[in-house]
Amino acid sequence: MEVERKLKLLTEYGTKAALECQPVDAFRDEILQVSPERVDAWKQLLSSIASTEASEELFMSPVVRALESQAVVFDYLKVHQEDENRHHRLLRGYVKQTFGYERKSRSLASRLFYDALLPQASELTGKRYPLTALAMIYFYEVFSKYVYGELKILAERDGLTRLVKLVEIIEKDERRHLAGIETIFGIYQENVRKVDFRDLYLTRAALLIARIDLTQKPWAFHNRKLRERLLCLGISPDRWEECGKTAYHTCLGLFRGEIPSGSLS
Ligand SMILES: [Fe+2]
Ligand SMILES: [Fe+2]
User: Fold this and answer.
1) Count of C-beta atoms within a 10 Å radius of residue 118
2) Within a 13 Å sphere around the CA of 113, how many CA atoms are in the beta-carbon half?
3) Cα separation of 193 and 188, whole Å?
4) CA quadruple 63, 66, 68, 70: dihedral sign
């Protein structure tokens, strides 16, 4: 079957990417030219993104278990999960080696969302409504595509050449992830069942929570610090908000069978 062959190919690419990736200690920059304010913003923002990558890995576990019986899908998802773990380790390592910083604790809002709410939501939907859980993963993948794109431009501006390289490696993986989830969506509907109204309602509700997590609207008290860091680095909170909206609509488009072109280049 054509789609299964594509997924096998993506799994192979993922396995190869893991083998070819340079070790964590290969990513370190000199920061003498970067102002102390920006150093602080960089280390905090990258630490937050590293935590989100780790949460993505955990968040995927119920879906991986739910789709265990479909070998091709399972093999792909395991590699995808390992990629997220690698992204976490690479970013955390970069922050430690470049800024001498290691985040020991996270905010209450972050712990509530990523350690309690998100895993619970994933556990609930993963088994009975894997399409919703897959859509949530897809939402974060689409959003991360924009975030890494912005980070690369800013890292270039600050002369953080190894960070640029690191982001390029991650971006390549994320493009593969988009293609992977799109393919699994098709395989699931072909082999198990078609999307129905429950998937759609549940997904809308789940995506609303994800958007609240990321929002940069003035009332978003939980993202106040993030907003300061984005502004310090030169990322417009409005642009961030716009990216969340685009990710939301792209994600719902999956349910209408609209696969965006260029996910994997
Ligand atoms: Fe990732
Ligand atoms: Fe990803």
Assistant:
1) 22
2) 18
3) 7
4) negative
Name 104's Cβ contacts closer than 8 Å, sequence gap at least 6.
none
> What Cα–Cα distance (Å) separates residue 114 from each residue in 108, 169, 216, 220?
10, 25, 18, 17
pLDDT in tens, 115-150: 777 777 767 776 777 888 888 899 999 999 999 999
Q: Which residues surround ligand 1, an ion (CB under 5 A)?
A: 53, 84, 87
| The CATH classification of domain 2-20+33-255, taken from the options 1.10.620.20, 3.40.50.720, 3.40.640.10, 2.140.10.10 | 1.10.620.20
User: Per 3-state DSSP, what percentage of the chain is helix, strand, and coil (rounded to 5)?
Assistant: 80, 0, 20
In sequence order, what are the residues at sequence separation of 6 or more whose Cβ sits closer than 8 angstroms to the Cβ of residue 49? 91, 147, 151
**72 Cα: distance to centroid of ligand 1 (angstroms):** 21
| Domain extent listing, the chain | 2-20+33-255
Q: Number of C-alpha atoms within 13 angstroms, CB side, residue 176?
A: 26
**Per-chain mean pLDDT for the chain:** 86
List, for residues 144-173, the tens digit of each pLDDT value.
999 999 999 999 999 999 999 999 999 999
Q: How many residues does the chain have?
A: 265
Q: How many CB atoms lie within 10 A of CB 14?
A: 22
Q: Is the pLDDT of residue 263 over 70?
A: no
From ligand 1's centre to the CA of 207, what distance in Å?
Answer: 18
At 213, list the tokens.
């997590």
CB 92 within 8 A of CB 102: yes
CA of 36 to the centre of ligand 2 (A): 30
Say how many Å lie between the CA of residue 141 and the centre of ligand 2: 5
